[in-house]
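Morning run. Coffee first, then this:
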Amino acid sequence: MDRVAAERIRPVLDELAVVANREAQALEGLIHEKMRLGIVSALAASGSMTFSALKELLQTTDGNISVHARKLEEAGYIACTKTFENRKPRSEYVLTEEGREALEKYLSHLEALLGAMRKR
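And here it is:
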C-alpha cells in the first residue's frame, strides 16, 4: 500500500477501532464466556432445560455445567428448581427476565460491532 492510500484509510481504521473498542468493552462479561453463553442461549431458545439436557447439548462435564450455572444463578440470570423424580435429583433451569435482558443487550452490542465492521 502506498503512502497516499495509507493516509486515506487511516481515519477510517481509527474510527472503526473506536467503535470496536467501545462495543467490546460494553459486552456483558458474564455472558460472553463460551459455556455461559451456551447455557443462556439454550434456555432462551427452549424455555427450560434440565441439568442433564444442558450437559448433553453443550457436550461438557457435570462440574463445568455446575460451575457456570451457579455463576449465572448468582447473577440472577437463571433460576434453578430442584426436585426428585423416581428418587433421583432433578435440576431444572430457566432464564429469568434479568437474564433475557442481559442476553438481548449482549446481542445488541454484538450486532453494533458487526455493523461497524461491515460498513467498511
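The chain has one domain: 3-118. Good start to the day.
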